[in-house]
Fold this protein.
Amino acid sequence: MPARLLPVIPPELVVHDEEEDCSYLPGRRARRPLRLPARQLTPAELDQRLAAGDRRAGWMLYNQQCPSCAACEALRVDVAAFVPSRSQRRAQAKGDAAVTVSVGRIEVDGERLALYRAHQSGRNLDQDGRPPIESAEYESYFASSCADGFEVRYTVADKLAGVAIVDRGERALSAVYTFWDPAHAALSLGTYSILTQVVLARRMGLEWLYLGLAIRENHSMAYKVAFMPHERRIGGVWQRFARG
């Protein structure tokens, strides 16, 4: 595929655009062109990309453009209007009692690599035959970025138990990836992390928390729809969903 330059601000170079097997829904075909911005995005430019349904992977941006499937729906939580469900309040209470939360720059070290690998193995996300992630790959995917970001650290009994990689726009936070120690499954750290990021966004005076793709046919990607009210991007249009 010849590379092509997209006339946006900043310009973006399409470096990959091929159909491939879908990693979310077996038996389906996926297409998500990878685009490399010419420079780092400003917070306002990141907001524009997020509002268009984009996600970030390292310096790259991508958007689902699958040929015959529309199961992936970008989802964003209305920070000001969000009200936790009963189960989410329980997760909040459990986490508050056991977890210490801190925020800092994105770091790359052996502790994070071990935690990431444990998370991948514990959730059976390492079944594609690739070797365990090393520091260079971790850095290129999370720490090297076309957007400004930070990490949220979750510590249990003075030991790192979870990390959330978060991008910050002018009006929104974007949850890039969260991983945690499967030994702490009872603390529901995935849910607790989203609740924590809602609080952070609210304190920052932001409007949205982007949670990436919701896929109702994939259990590990469907839980996001429980955070309401939220909007999902369907057919290129953001549609609002709220409880009853």
